[in-house]
Amino acid sequence: GQPATTCHAFLGETVVLPCTATSPGELILSSSILYWQRMTSVVHFVYNGQDLLLHQDERYHGRTSLFLDQMQHGNFSLMLSNVQVNDSGLYTCIYKQTGDYLSPTQKSEIELNVSGKILLSSETGRQSQISSRSSADAPQLVTLPLSFHLLVTLGVWHL
Fold it and tell me: Which structural domain, as residue segments, surrounds residue 28?
């Protein structure tokens, strides 16, 4: 298939993971399955037009939504709110018409990179002094690319 699309987001933001079906014309949602997953976790699951969130990974509870008014036009994009650093990874969007066994299963992959904002000033005691000085002296926010963060936590950099 096509290479994965990459999405970037900052901690706490809402991100839209894009997924569109290629079927021509209107889709019949009452006979279709839409399955968003990340590795083995169920992120969002719609069966025959109904949200089935029973099997949803609890980490995603209340944080996912679809564009219901656009789904019959093939927009299966997933909105994920309050993004956390550990939401990073490869998400798979799988769509299939249930009634028509000849219809191919459509699958697309989206890589989500979440960057944490890290405050360089680790000494909280100095914060009160900093706020009274000019803003130029305030600690800068730096963005740490997630891949670096992961490599460090996994200890891969020892290799």
Answer: 5-114
The CATH number that applies at residue 26 is 2.60.40.10
Q: Which helix (H) or strand (E) holds 97?
A: strand 89-97
Sheet strands (E) in 1-153: 5-10, 15-17, 32-38, 41-47, 50-51, 64-66, 78-80, 89-97, 106-119, 141-144
Q: Which residue has the tokens 């706490």?
A: 12
Q: How far apart are CA 70 and CA 26, in angstroms?
A: 10
When divided into structural domains, the chain yields a total of 1
In a domain? residue 143: no
On whether residue 21 sits in a domain, the answer given is yes
> pLDDT tens digits for the chain (159 residues)?
567 799 999 999 999 999 998 766 778 888 889 999 998 899 999 999 888 888 899 999 999 999 988 998 899 999 999 999 999 999 999 998 887 667 788 999 999 999 987 655 544 444 444 444 444 444 444 444 444 444 444 544 443
Q: Would 10 be classed as within a structural domain?
A: yes
Q: Please, are residues 101 and 81 in contact by the beta-carbon 8 Å criterion? A: no
